[in-house]
Design a protein that fits this description.
Helices cover about 30% and strands about 20% of the residues. By secondary structure, the chain is of the alpha/beta class. It has a five-stranded parallel beta sheet with strand order 4-3-2-1-5, covered by helices on one side. The protein is globular, with a radius of gyration of 13 Å.
Length: about 110
């Protein structure tokens, strides 16, 4: 039976390991083929999906995890707005904050 796993990111990605650790953990969830991984980026967490030079800005590495999750067919949901571009090869679904409750209600597991 397939499990819908949603990992919700809301934290600013700079100066903390929180976002990087959630991404690393999400990669691990893909080891079970029955898991459907859904990543939800809200507010300041969206900065992690931009084209960034992590070493230059002193950010914990997240790009490798994001790229791997993209290749492993994880679904990315990104809150609309913010006024900045995301990675060019990023395949994501825009999300209105008002749609979040219905999305989370479809989950078997939610990690925030």
């Amino acid at each position: 039976m397939q499990k819908q796993i949603f990992v919700v990111f809301t934290d600013y990605p700079f100066g903390t390991n929180r976002l990087a650790e959630k991404l690393r953990m999400s990669v691990g969830f893909t080891l079970n083929d029955n898991n459907k991984i859904n990543l939800v980026f809200l507010g300041n967490a969206r900065h992690a999906l931009r084209e960034l030079d992590e070493k230059e800005i002193g950010m914990n590495p997240v790009t490798k995890h994001i790229d791997m999750l993209s290749q492993l067919k994880a679904s990315f949901f990104v809150e609309e707005g913010g006024g900045f571009g995301l990675k060019q090869n990023m395949d994501f679904k825009p999300l209105k904050r008002s749609e979040l409750d219905a999305l989370i209600d479809s989950a078997d597991v939610v990690i925030h």
